[in-house]
């Protein structure tokens, strides 16, 4: 059995659940006609299925290696990444002025979903490059853009993001890497960075590092951080890789999963860098990169879950214990719930993509606020769901799931990182209840109002499911209004369950829309019932947990926790 | 930081939550006085902390190997297992007539919990031996008992259980291994078995296999299965290991975790075996072994969760991001919930142990029924909780959790198998709603009545928590009564969530008892509030899922699942 990209589901969602049509009606994305979208997704799906997916096990079994200071990629990765680059897939959403396809982010999210299911380790390479492209488009000088963007968009070069240092993880402001002016407009970058994904490889001719560092006069904390482009090879006068820069890969991490993706400790020793985005404005530029990446990390969770689901279903059809185990009620339950959760998370991620596109194309603040609201939800729910679904995938396989050769365990190992990087899911949830509620919950309540209105409209055809969704949205709205009155500590204590509840309500809503599109006795109608009746109700427990606030947690002292 | 066995929690539970006192009042367990229990657990804890735990990482990093047909154990394992054997720990609960300590199963469960936290791979060795001891005590001839029990109880020899074959997993009745009479009272055993834990090793002088096989005239299915003792070396006239039997280890599995525990493919080629428990009565004997093992697999999940919790707490105290992250609300929430879940599962497992002991010592059917009811709950909740808590342990570590050297990921990899072996958690749940409800829910309702009565009594001191627990028990009772009227397919479809709900209600109950014992402003009172207010409420969502039954699942055809 082999991986089959979920082209149909993505197309169905963009046609009926979170319509792409309004995006295609804007001037910016006029090319994204239904025919174009179909052609792009179909072609992308074929590439994922036929070229990328066959490399996935090799990446796990033959991890990347550091040899004489150069990272050797896993077998087949170089050819697969070249095929991706040649198809123009790195630059799907990039500016056509520099060679990009200029397509909506929603399409890119769908493609990243498919690509992650095919090979998560490999997908990380173009994903980081895409984030860098977006950061440069928004914040780099015209000179840097002209030099770097065409090479990044074509996939000739790849990009990385360098934030973390041993003492500076979630607290980025604690970073110590220095940037000293060389007097010629460039800077000398010195410091150590850790957890640098695809920090080096033998698949591209240059690796472009975006590095956060401090100028000599910088204020402490995040206000004193600037961003620098630090290429592995300094481009010569023709824009080709020239002399080697003063940087190196010190070591590779030995990780639970994504063995095909090199996670590097990087050392910069007076490396030459070019500033991106102005003095002390590094965080703003980095956030551009991270916001893009966060949504697409959500897509990673969904893609890997899809691959795990397909594998579990195939096993359940083949494995006979009395009957094929797909006929056993508990196995049927696991599979149906896996499928229902994947659909919910996929719809949320695509809704976020559509909101980003509408925000860009129309400049309307309401769309931008929706995109901002949905980004942490798409990231955290997509990846938490990915962990749950891949774990269930192992369970469906029984004892075989624990044997590495089966491949079910690889999905669970690989996807585990997605809940941690690009801001842990705890950070996502705090972003949701903090920064994303600075409008006193206006954007959240507008979205919940939409859910209630649509649920209202669905009552005649789906009386039970529509009522459930309406009630859930109403509870979510009441909770949100209550939460706005609480202090930040209490909000943070309930942030993770609040985000979970919000995602489940949205998941129920998008399932209801799918059911409405296909009718009462359709497969999508049945799947909606699985989600709304069996998985959505957890929102109430999550809200109960969120409502408890911080007091009860701190009532237990650290000594109590140790006892 | 190093592992510290949870001696205090186990003692507290046996003193105040699921009292061991009535067990110690029986003639059979009169030796289990509070002083004795304290001495045993303290000494056992010291052994786990000082001798066993230091071998845990080595087992992961240096997996067992098959060399020239012999399994080489991981570094330090032989010495650690010898220390265990010399301390008499293998035979804690075994018959004193053959050298056992004859202590209550509850103590053994507590010890297995501590030992699993120290090193799960290693603990599997005595665990399987303990199960075999119990099966032999109940079903073997006096001759076999005299020959094997002293060696197994002393830990000189180890035991295995051989059920699974490639085509026969959950459907044990599909097994094909043959047993042909040799005419001298012995049998020739021929067949292949898979997933045989500690199927061989270099730490003991003999390995005793209990093998399920079919006599030539056997009926198909489980009714035609007999059980045989098939030693690696046939004991000579002095009871010492003599000539090698016709069996071998074909290969070892490459697994997600428990790398220190060899999982063997075994081949029996006319190996000499001795029948245990009568013709075609193999399943009954094997169930004795499995019931013991199931509860202690629950203890495995709890022990590994404990170790993961301790490691995460230590990291959260040391890791500074702004402040030590243990002060961050979301990290505090994760840690408090980990601790609360571990306590709940531990109390359930010990309650099951006490019920087993009371059933044995008093012969009362009500205790035996309670033990039977609690066994699948203790197994499935203990192991599902173990998966959740070790996963959260990785999350608390952030990026470091994904790096194998940290050790947090090992706990998550190791514990994953516990939800699968000794009957998957789906099988446990079906056992609960099927076989364990053949009394029309009488045993379940008696236990829930106890919960309600105790909650009633706790109302004045803990009005909110007591009310929550009472309501939950009442909902559980109503659901149970409703379920008894449903067909088996509907019960099975809701079995897993039903078991989860039952466990959460019991977890709330035992937390309430702990709170009552220590008072309103105690740490245990605060921890009870964390569980009852934040984690127990999921029972309602689980019951909602359980109530949906099978229809909605089968409304989705296999083709729909593939679409």
UniProtKB/TrEMBL annotation, chains A, B:
<dbReference type="InterPro" id="IPR037069">
    <property type="entry name" value="AcylCoA_DH/ox_N_sf"/>
</dbReference>
<feature type="domain" description="Acyl-CoA dehydrogenase/oxidase C-terminal">
    <location>
        <begin position="281"/>
        <end position="432"/>
    </location>
</feature>
<dbReference type="Pfam" id="PF00441">
    <property type="entry name" value="Acyl-CoA_dh_1"/>
</dbReference>
<dbReference type="InterPro" id="IPR036250">
    <property type="entry name" value="AcylCo_DH-like_C"/>
</dbReference>
<keyword id="KW-0285">Flavoprotein</keyword>
<dbReference type="Pfam" id="PF12806">
    <property type="entry name" value="Acyl-CoA_dh_C"/>
</dbReference>
<keyword id="KW-0274">FAD</keyword>
<dbReference type="InterPro" id="IPR025878">
    <property type="entry name" value="Acyl-CoA_dh-like_C_dom"/>
</dbReference>
<dbReference type="InterPro" id="IPR006091">
    <property type="entry name" value="Acyl-CoA_Oxase/DH_mid-dom"/>
</dbReference>
<dbReference type="InterPro" id="IPR046373">
    <property type="entry name" value="Acyl-CoA_Oxase/DH_mid-dom_sf"/>
</dbReference>
<dbReference type="InterPro" id="IPR009075">
    <property type="entry name" value="AcylCo_DH/oxidase_C"/>
</dbReference>
<protein>
    <recommendedName>
        <fullName>3-methylmercaptopropionyl-CoA dehydrogenase</fullName>
        <ecNumber>1.3.99.41</ecNumber>
    </recommendedName>
</protein>
<dbReference type="Pfam" id="PF02771">
    <property type="entry name" value="Acyl-CoA_dh_N"/>
</dbReference>
<comment type="function">
    <text>Involved in the assimilation of dimethylsulphoniopropionate (DMSP), an important compound in the fixation of carbon in marine phytoplankton, by mediating the conversion of 3-(methylthio)propanoyl-CoA (MMPA-CoA) to 3-(methylthio)acryloyl-CoA (MTA-CoA).</text>
</comment>
<dbReference type="InterPro" id="IPR009100">
    <property type="entry name" value="AcylCoA_DH/oxidase_NM_dom_sf"/>
</dbReference>
<feature type="domain" description="Acyl-CoA dehydrogenase/oxidase N-terminal">
    <location>
        <begin position="78"/>
        <end position="156"/>
    </location>
</feature>
<feature type="domain" description="Acetyl-CoA dehydrogenase-like C-terminal">
    <location>
        <begin position="448"/>
        <end position="556"/>
    </location>
</feature>
<dbReference type="InterPro" id="IPR013786">
    <property type="entry name" value="AcylCoA_DH/ox_N"/>
</dbReference>
<keyword id="KW-0560">Oxidoreductase</keyword>
<dbReference type="InterPro" id="IPR052166">
    <property type="entry name" value="Diverse_Acyl-CoA_DH"/>
</dbReference>
<dbReference type="Pfam" id="PF02770">
    <property type="entry name" value="Acyl-CoA_dh_M"/>
</dbReference>
<comment type="similarity">
    <text>Belongs to the acyl-CoA dehydrogenase family.</text>
</comment>
<dbReference type="GO" id="GO:0016627">
    <property type="term" value="F:oxidoreductase activity, acting on the CH-CH group of donors"/>
</dbReference>
<dbReference type="GO" id="GO:0050660">
    <property type="term" value="F:flavin adenine dinucleotide binding"/>
</dbReference>
<feature type="domain" description="Acyl-CoA oxidase/dehydrogenase middle">
    <location>
        <begin position="161"/>
        <end position="269"/>
    </location>
</feature>
């Amino acid at each position: 059995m082999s991986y089959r990209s979920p082209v149909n589901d993505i197309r169905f969602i963009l046609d009926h659940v979170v319509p792409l049509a309004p995006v295609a009606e804007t001037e910016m994305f006029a090319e994204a006609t239904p025919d174009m979208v179909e052609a792009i997704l179909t072609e992308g799906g074929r590439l994922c299925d036929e070229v990328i997916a066959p490399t996935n096990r090799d990446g796990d079994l033959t991890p990347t290696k550091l040899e004489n200071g150069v990272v050797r990629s896993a077998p087949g990765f170089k050819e697969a990444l070249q095929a991706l680059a040649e198809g123009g897939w790195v630059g799907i959403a990039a500016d056509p002025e520099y060679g990009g396809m200029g397509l909506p982010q929603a399409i890119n999210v769908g493609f990243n979903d498919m690509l992650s299911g095919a090979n998560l380790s490999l997908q990380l390479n173009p994903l980081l490059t895409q984030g860098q492209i977006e950061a440069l488009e928004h914040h780099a000088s015209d000179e840097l853009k002209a030099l770097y963007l065409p090479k990044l968009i074509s996939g000739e070069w790849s990009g990385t993001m360098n934030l973390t240092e041993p003492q500076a993880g979630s607290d980025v402001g604690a970073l110590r890497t220095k940037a000293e002016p060389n007097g010629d407009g460039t800077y000398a970058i010195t410091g150590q960075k850790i957890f640098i994904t695809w920090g080096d490889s033998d698949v591209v001719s240059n690796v472009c590092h975006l590095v956060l560092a401090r100028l000599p006069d910088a204020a402490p904390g995040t206000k004193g951080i600037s961003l620098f482009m630090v290429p592995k090879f300094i481009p010569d006068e023709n824009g080709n890789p020239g002399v080697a820069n003063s940087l190196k890969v010190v070591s590779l991490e030995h990780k639970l999963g994504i063995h095909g993706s090199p996670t590097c400790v990087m050392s910069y020793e007076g490396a030459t860098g070019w500033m991106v985005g102005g003095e002390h404005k590094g965080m703003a530029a980095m956030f551009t990169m991270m916001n893009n990446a966060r949504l697409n990390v959500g897509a990673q969770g969904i893609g890997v879950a899809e691959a795990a689901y397909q594998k579990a279903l195939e096993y359940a059809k083949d494995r006979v214990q009395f009957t094929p185990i797909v006929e056993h009620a508990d196995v049927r339950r696991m599979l149906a719930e896996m499928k229902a959760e994947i659909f919910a998370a996929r719809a949320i991620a695509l809704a976020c993509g559509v909101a980003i596109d509408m925000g860009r194309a129309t400049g309307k603040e309401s769309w931008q606020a929706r995109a901002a609201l949905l980004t942490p939800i798409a990231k955290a729910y997509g990846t938490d769901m990915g962990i749950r679904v891949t774990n269930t995938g192992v369970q469906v396989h029984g004892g075989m799931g624990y044997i590495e050769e089966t491949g079910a365990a690889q999905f669970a190992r690989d996807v585990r990182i997605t809940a941690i990087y690009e801001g842990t899911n705890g950070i996502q949830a705090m972003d949701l209840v903090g920064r994303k509620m600075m409008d006193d919950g206006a954007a959240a309540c507008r979205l919940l109002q939409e859910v209630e209105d649509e649920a209202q409209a669905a009552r005649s055809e789906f009386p039970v499911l529509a009522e459930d969704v309406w009630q859930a949205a109403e509870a979510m709205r009441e909770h949100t209004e209550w939460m706005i009155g609480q202090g930040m500590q209490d909000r943070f204590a309930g942030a993770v369950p609040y985000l979970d509840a919000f995602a489940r309500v949205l998941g129920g809503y998008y399932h209801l829309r799918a059911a409405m599109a296909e009718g009462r006795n359709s497969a999508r109608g049945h799947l909606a019932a699985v989600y709304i009746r069996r998985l959505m109700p957890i929102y109430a427990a999550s809200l109960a947990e969120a409502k408890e606030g911080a007091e009860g947690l701190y009532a237990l002292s650290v000594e109590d926790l140790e006892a």
